[in-house]
Sequence to fold (501 residues):
Amino acid sequence: MSHHFTPVLLVFLIIGVTILVPFLYHRRQRYPPGPPTNPFTGNITKFPLQGGWATLTKLKDAYGDLVFFHGLGTRILVLNSMKTIADLLEKRGNIYSDRPNFTVVGELMDLGQSMPLLPYGEEWRVQRKLVHGSLGPSSVKQYHKIQEDLAGLLAKQLLDDPVGFFDHVRLTASRLILAITYGLDVESADNDYITHAEDTMLMISKATVPGAFLCDFFPWMKHLPSWLPFQRTAREGKQMIDELVTRPLEHVKQAMENSSAPRSLTQELLASDEQYPNKEHHIRWSMGSLYGAGGETTYATVLTCIMAMALHPDKLRLAQAEIDAVVGTDRLPTIGDRTHLPYVNAVIKETMRWHPALPLGIARSVTKDDIYNGYHIPRGTIVIPNVWAVAFEHCGVHSPSEFIPERFLVTTSEAVPADPAIWAFGFARRICPGKHLAENSLFIIIATILAAFNISEPSDRALDVQFTAGLVSYPLPFTCDITPRSSARASQVVWRASQVD
Ligand code: HEM
Fold:
């Protein structure tokens, strides 16, 4: 009997295997949900290229915490919640800590040598280590004085030329980084370096917009002849970037030879006895990375805060009242006051939540095929943490789009939103190494401005609330009135600026 059954069983088995295996395999290969696809371009053309955070956050309603785009050889996974970000970027950090490859900016212009773009590997590890020692929570105390001095000088500029506040804030953030990284004189740093650095940053931010170069989609194009316009642009960009990272380094080396180099991160690293391969190369790129990553993010946040204060005079008054009560009225705040000013800190947190400076963080790339919640995430997928969605998800009891610092001051446990300090600076192995420095900079610049000035919407028109749509998002130039709170505060500002040596 049994041997009659065997061929039948075999046939069934074969049929079963031929149908089931591809079926199961297909199930295993299932991509996370996303907008409808077509056979030619998948759904990649539906990925919003500029300022996509609001659109991507809306897609969360339709598709959930994971939204997947694919087509034309590119795959993008958007993470729309703290849970998915923690599960992948943190718990599976060994395969989710790489960066996508930018053919033009990264390879042809050489920016791939800089820490934010370096692949997850040995060179990146060396550069991170170089900056960690000097940017840790206790090391950053050595920069308090520079930060307080620069906040004081900024206040003086706001007093003398309030209309130019936008530029003053921008330059202050840039000077701060140049002073700390290279020991450049805070006042003269502008002429020598900032103009070039700003031009270069502008060039980089234009060049990193997806779609800026066809070559980013078709990497083989990098081998095309050098006279082609995109190759020329790439060469010019490479030169600008090279100058940005090399000139200040050479300046420090020269000053060290003359024994006149002030203390700075670069000077300390060059002077250290520690030996490792390509030492100068790594110092050049890790230090250069700090300017690129640390200037724009800081001024974006300060400008957003100024805008929010102009729009919310009642919140400004509360912050000022707290400063007057805690710090007093006879001096400007210092970084030492930071832990004693909960309302001012809540204003800063709310600024970072209301409009995060990096609304989509900095993209990652996954180095191995992965399965998550039953979905297939292929190797090489670009992974984007949508922190804009996180900012709206964890916002406590108040409406997410409104500016309400009080949401961070609630005492009942379930209503307190997640502190932006845990998500605005990125995650796990690639978390922002400048976080502690940045938090002190934001505090001292914002607290100094609030202590000394009133900020209000222009009397003749409404303030235009608009933000740039690039990687770093900050207010488009806007007008607001910035006036000293009193003549006593104005005199304090003048005196404080005169103390900067
Ligand atoms: C408000 C200010 C700042 C914000 C919101 C911010 C945010 C971020 C974020 C979201 C990332 C990506 C992390 C990830 O991939 O998970 C990052 C990376 C980075 N940040 Fe910041 N940052 C700020 C200020 C600074 C400052 C002042 C410095 C330098 C002193 C700095 C240096 C860097 C560097 C070098 C990286 C690349 C790290 C890597 O790829 O391993 N940042 N930052």
